[in-house]
């Protein structure tokens, strides 16, 4: 992606093909301070005048590419829908109710009942975090010295982006439940989320002392190490989690994401792990692929679907918004499959750019794949790769004739 931007600026001299060439190029550029100062003074203007800033032109070229992709699919399937190859298609969310701690015994209404706790846990399971927050706050008012209400409150606040409030609630839960591994793990996640990595490491190691086979704690400790730049330790913790749960897709996603930052591993070695991801999570769905009934007319409007958890205030906005806001709706019908816990002002803009807005939070991959197939999508675009909230499991089911991954991830999907 970086080389594409530099090429678009008309500065291919800045592109290196190896580490040694990169160092030589930097030394060469840095040695001519006058030319460097001139470049710095004119770079912003170059950017404004470059094709990179031609948003309408960019959208037009993307639409041409979509049309060509669809035409190739039509040509390939002219004598029957022959299924071709396709690419298979982070922190683990705080949970409720998975802890093995003993159930509380009620004494004169001083403790919440099992039914009260089940009701709150059900809000988390259905991702109704606002209602869950309301119920959890009522519980902590009624039972302020019982840890479950605080643990539940933290779990409801975190996905709503209320990081500081979530941290306060989780710290209270950990204080009241010192022997609860889940409370310690949840606290570590929020400490990590607020950039307190050293404290997060302590909390997550505490969770693993209490429960050595705690997959989520290994995963969140690995993410903490990754954010601290301790890549080797991060990889070791991810692998520990995967030994416990070889089928844990989100942990494997996080592991692959982290491998991209390991400067000591060869590209072939990293790619082999992506191939293993395909074997574990992609190949199983190939037997269920079926033909697509999409019209083969190449001159009609093409249905294009974008799948993303980031239709909100996010760095991807700088790339996605110029395209979506300049689509020619005489040429394409635009669908957005949005996996959001909450909307914001940027979300509202995205909704205005598309023809069909489809909230997908709470949908399983299988259900979403069925919805996409029912919508008759011709070209399906993944915008997340192996980042948090991705729907690669949908792409593995091949619900559209043509699928691709763009922009949200700097490597293959597997």
Shape: globular
**H/E order of the elements?**
HHHHHHHHHHHHHHEHEHEHEHE
CA gyration radius, whole angstroms: 24 Å
Q: Span from first to last CA?
A: 18 Å
Q: Helix proportion of residues, in percent?
A: 40-55%
Q: What would the average pLDDT be, to the nearest integer? A: 88
Tally of helical segments: 18
Main structural class: alpha/beta
Largest sheet: 5 strands, parallel
Low-confidence stretches: 79-94, 97-108
Largest sheet, spatial ordering of strands? 3-2-1-4-5
> Hey, roughly how much beta strand do the residues contain?
5-15%
In total, the number of strands is 5
Describe the protein's topology.
Layout: H1 2-8, H2 19-31, H3 33-49, H4 55-76, H5 114-125, H6 129-142, H7 147-157, H8 163-176, H9 181-193, H10 197-210, H11 215-227, H12 231-244, H13 249-259, H14 267-281, E1 302-308, H15 317-324, E2 332-338, H16 345-353, E3 356-359, H17 365-375, E4 379-382, H18 392-395, E5 402-405
Parallel strand pairs: 1-2, 1-4, 2-3, 4-5
Helix pairs in contact: 5-6, 5-7, 6-7, 7-8, 8-9, 9-10, 9-11, 10-11, 11-12, 11-13, 12-13, 13-14
Account of the 3D structure:
The protein is α/β, with parallel strands linked by helices. It is 54% helix and 6% strand. The protein is built from 18 helices and 5 strands. The protein has a 5-stranded parallel β-sheet, with helices on one face. Helix 15 links the parallel strand 1 and strand 2. Helix 10 runs antiparallel to helix 11 and helix 11 packs antiparallel against helix 12. The longest helix is centred in the N-terminal third of the chain and has 22 residues. The chain is globular, with a radius of gyration of 24 Å. The chain starts with a helix and ends in a 9-residue tail after the last strand. About 7% of the residues have low confidence.
